[in-house]
User: What shape does this take?
Amino acid sequence: MKRIIACVVYALTVIPLTVAADNEFPEDQVSFQVEADREVENDRAVAVLAVTAENRDPSQVATQINTSMGWALSQLSGQSAISTRSGTYQTFPVYDDSKIVRWRGRQELQLESADIEALSRMIGTLQERLQVKSMQFSVSPEKRREVEAGLIEEALKAFGQRAQLIRKALDAESYNLMDVSVNTGGGYRPPPMRAEVMASVARDSVPAPVIDQGTSRITVQVNGRIQLLRD
Assistant: This one.
């Protein structure tokens, strides 16, 4: 599996605070922000598959759906790397000239895994009877926490360096840290692969779909305020 080299980008804005007339805030305060981010390879995927059936007899619709879903779950038996969850189950009438002419049903099955290759192979197997409706990729919580920990350390270090630069540029002897906050964000997910895309693989063929999980951008922002101290 390909690896994406991580990079760190810093962005900042220096904004002098307006001093209140009643001296609510001490003088010579500066507020600014430092940002660190990194592109991280997605290591978790969620796929939604569905089985559909249509028949004049609603009981036959239920039988077809239940049989196909039971087959799918049997294929997943023993796949400890893939977690499953049953989704929406719907049965509804189809009308023609205000009369019920047949019944249509659908049940969804959600698969989630950090083993992208195993998930891809399983999807190829399940496509014999189920249709892939969507796939989404993200960074796992464990990996996100690890990356954020490193970014927080880097952002705080950059905050201190920026505070010293501001102190020096504004001709102050030192500064007091008034407040600081650390915020995490990002986590862009590539657009899900919709049913129209996955439909290009015929239901009677079972090769595993080609998957590129892409990357997500994880961001840490440090916002703070310092008071410049002069002679």
Summary: Residues 9-41+141-186+219-229 form one domain. Confidence is low (pLDDT under 50) at residues 1-23, 188-192, 194-205. The helical segments are 58-76, 116-126, 141-169, 195-198.
